[in-house]
């Protein structure tokens, strides 16, 4: 496997492939990335001499595409070892040096779309049978590039369907992979939704019931969450041992016995398994063609003023009809004439008619400034539709989104699809997400969140949650700490890359603010399993974060698989590794259904469980 990239996703992906799947990896990174401490995947942290630690250490002080560092596995494994190449760009010479002609798969995860596309075209020419995985932010361009590269592979393979399938191209976006999980974490009660093979899976985090257990809640229990301060001896669940501080680790895919013994532990439960056909039914509607709604044209005070004027006109028309005995429609017509001063004076008519004419003229005078204000407000609304909005007065119950980069933009779109009110905070006036915020008419506060008054301008004291997703861990942490000084019970979700740092922050914040919900997420941690699965030809359909772990959903063919074929759905369950949820496209899979050749199942699996299913 060859991984080329210039940020944390490359290191995370390489560690995922080697530490979870046992693959031999060549990592291509820029020279200035050699000092980045790569993440450690899974429980390999206990063995301090991990693969990437050795690769980075061996790469220090070397430069150029020909300078490679060969190392063995964590236990002195492969003799030919894994390598790190230092190069600013994955051009033809670098790809050849990395061994693309002999590689099974290549992942191009540079932050720049153009760099990934250029390298992919070169790699396809060097090795037409190479499986390609590209990281692209532009969705539409990604679809065209995927079709183009697949067509080139098909022609190079002389139409061989098996060879073409092995040389498939997969275009993924780390932002699209992580955004749903980040958005769902920030909203209380929002289910974590994964669309898989025509099915819609909804999982929800449920608190521990009073004196009960989570057994029987939902279709199945996907994970048991950690419990701070719990006596380790209180729960003998396999694989859920203490962390050394009286805290139970989260347990993914527990069996029924573990769930029954997990009294007092919150859980992530599969709540619904349904067809994905109507998944967008609950999405908030948008006006056709981007037409602004009437309520956005006029302020609330002006709408009330207009309503009051209409009520006065109706009252005068009814009074005129009663005084003169004429038809109500004619009375309404005469009232409008009197208001606009184009009717004859009521000389020689009854006193009541004269009084009503004077009152109608007075109402007409009062309506002139109201109509002028309505015209000015409407014009101002259209004029400022392309400008950034400020948080309105009285706003509350919203989500404060910090950062409008690639990740923040996708999270903002997802939150608005869920109908959640959002206020964005961004320091860069040229950030890519400002155009999206302007189009969605989302209030934005421009300013450095570390400066005093910026969070207050975003109405943080009345917010429902803070979602900090900038690329700087320290900025996210500083924003969370500042917000907690204003609102100690505020729900916070912060994006942190380093696992050890995130664990320390999470435990400290949870201990300091026990009544407030705190979550930390890593975008590369959420996205790496999908990229790794694509490199191995495995279709990872979605991921749900469980604290700092990830539960994957994948489609697996039963044909020839000894752990699945010939077994019932119930017997195919492997606690702590994988669970068969359904057959593809079917919501009525019985536990006694026997899996046979030709079946394709949707499984929930841990990263190591999915590796075992290979």
What does this protein look like?
With 614 residues, the chain is of the alpha/beta class. Helix 4 runs parallel beside helix 5 (139-156), helix 7 crosses helix 13 (406-417) and helix 10 (300-324) runs antiparallel to helix 12. The chain is elongated, with a radius of gyration of 31 Å.
Topology of this structure?
Elements: E1 2-5, H1 8-19, E2 26-29, H2 51-59, E3 68-71, E4 82-86, H3 92-97, E5 105-109, H4 113-126, E6 131-135, H5 139-156, H6 161-166, E7 169-172, H7 174-186, E8 192-196, E9 199-206, E10 220-224, E11 251-252, H8 256-261, E12 267-275, H9 294-297, H10 300-324, H11 328-339, H12 351-383, E13 399-402, H13 406-417, E14 422-426, H14 433-439, E15 444-446, H15 454-457, E16 465-468, H16 473-486, E17 491-495, H17 499-512, E18 518-521, H18 523-535, E19 539-546, E20 549-557, E21 578-583, E22 600-605, H19 607-613
Parallel strand pairs: 1-2, 1-5, 2-4, 5-6, 6-7, 13-14, 13-16, 14-15, 16-17, 17-18
Antiparallel strand pairs: 3-4, 8-9, 9-12, 10-11, 10-12, 19-20, 20-22, 21-22
Helix pairs in contact: 1-18, 4-5, 7-13, 7-18, 10-11, 10-12, 11-12, 13-14
Strand order of the largest sheet: 3-4-2-1-5-6-7
Mean pLDDT: 78
Report the biggest beta sheet as strand number plus sense, adding barrel if it closes. Answer: 7 strands, mixed
Helix content: 25-40%
Low-confidence regions:
40-81, 211-216, 229-243, 277-292
Distance from first to last alpha carbon: 16 Å
Strand content: 15-25%
- Give the number of helices: 19
Q: Gyration radius, to the nearest Å?
A: 31 Å
Number of strands: 22
> Overall 3D geometry?
elongated
